[in-house]
Design goal:
It is built from 11 helices and 14 strands. By secondary structure, the protein is of the alpha/beta class. The longest helix is centred in the middle third of the chain and has 14 residues, at about 90-100. The protein starts with 6 loop residues before the first strand and ends in an 8-residue tail after the last helix.
Length: about 270
């Protein structure tokens, strides 16, 4: 990269956030002091905009949030969804029916752009997600037209094992990944963080080579490969490390992103 980056993208959980899933004081200070015209800080997360926006509110330095693993682009300054790319309803319903037929005890949930989160009872029992933020439905409910993500879980299989089990059924109908949680996350075919970051970079007239990205898990792999320079966190999954160009010296709970930003932009490292 011959010049300083014009866009820096950050995964949130396990990357920009600390152990409490918040922005640390050092990270906020770093973002605020480095923020300037022509430099775009972008959150890129599996979280919904409903979940990400409040946690990013301590700083005004991040204007854009790529949410739902690339299915949504959210303008934090204007508090509005500027792009959304839902799953194709009919083919997703067919794929879900096929997976259910081959996978007894499958549990699922989904996120609607306009209505929020919905889950069947079994899904709630298999995850640590806060039930007060989700709405229970029965297993015969039809999927909505504006479904951003489909979640899949199983009582006897972890996320990666479940992904391997259903690989033949999903074909090219779903883009499957995981953020390290106990469930799989599916978006529309081809939709991921890198895909939406590429769209945003084009809108901002920024060359791909002038971007950097930070991530820690499997839903960051495409983003780390796409960026001009991809940084896997010191606490990252091995596949994220493999996709990246470099690894941060410090983990997410030690302000690893802030440490690299200070080095990249010529600011002395002052983490105690």
């Amino acid at each position: 990269m011959s010049k300083l980056p014009s866009l820096a993208a950050f995964d949130l959980d396990g990357t920009l956030f600390d152990r409490s899933a918040q922005l640390s004081t050092a990270t906020i200070e770093t973002l605020e002091r480095l923020s300037k015209p022509g430099l775009h800080f972008v959150a890129a997360t599996g979280r919904s905009h409903r979940s990400a926006a409040p946690r990013l509110s301590p700083t005004s330095a991040i204007r854009w949030a790529v949410c739902d693993n690339g299915a949504v682009l959210y303008d934090l300054e204007q508090a509005v969804v500027t792009e959304s790319h839902p799953l194709p309803r009919d083919s997703t319903m067919d794929t879900l029916a096929t997976i259910r037929a081959s996978t007894p005890d499958l549990a699922w949930a989904w996120e609607s752009l306009t209505q929020g989160f919905f889950w069947i009872e079994q899904f709630a029992s298999l995850t640590t997600l806060p039930p007060d933020k989700w709405q229970q439905i029965d297993d015969g409910s039809e999927l909505p037209d504006d479904m951003l993500k489909l979640y899949l879980a199983h009582p006897e299989m972890g996320a990666l094992e479940l992904a391997a089990h259903i690989r033949d059924e999903i074909s090219t109908d779903l883009a499957i990944t995981t953020s390290g949680a106990e469930f799989l996350e599916a978006t529309a075919p081809g939709v991921n963080k890198a895909w939406m970051l590429n769209r945003l970079s084009q809108q901002l007239d920024i060359d791909q080579e002038h971007t950097i990205a930070f991530g820690d898990n499997l839903n960051d792999v495409e983003m780390l490969s796409w960026a001009g320079t991809g940084y896997a966190m010191a606490n990252a999954h091995p596949l994220a490390v493999e996709a990246a160009d470099a690894v941060t010296a410090l983990a997410h709970d030690a302000d690893g992103v802030a440490d690299v930003l200070r080095q990249v932009f010529g600011w002395p490292n002052f983490i105690d």
